[in-house]
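Chapter summary example.
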Amino acid sequence: MNIPQADKYRFVLLQEGPVGGVTNGPVYVNGKIANPSMPLKPGESGKIELTEAFEKGGYTNVKFTLRGGVVYYYVTPNGNDIYKPEFYLEPHMDIIGYIPVAELDKVQRGDNVISGQASVPKDFFDSYVQKLKKEYGNKVVIVSKRLEPIFLAQKEYMLWEGH
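The structure predicted for these 163 residues follows.
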């Protein structure tokens, strides 16, 4: 890295990450109320509409996505017999991908009515679950799966500033 001579330095991390918001009201798919934790199931497509309330405004080039495949599961390294003294659970939560819905020029602070079209591949979860079963065998227990709306934007974090 080539650092020029200066009186003051600032190290900034630019990173795409979630924008702080909360879904304010029902989530609709093709005009019908849907489950906000799984608005579309694998193999389905549709127009998603929701109101998202952002804590902070001014984000530009925001990607509306479905954070895909949050898979919650346990691994039982010493087997599934809960009565053995060496039994224990290792909890896991994996994000397996993102499904694009829409690109937003900007979002404002407070409520934003947002819509977009999405399609979930039929094997979106199954291929990952099969990979887990291949790796852990009968020592993996799938607890739940989610596919939830999330908004991503480039954010700036100041890591250090000084002389």
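To summarize the output: The two ends are 18 Å apart (CA to CA).
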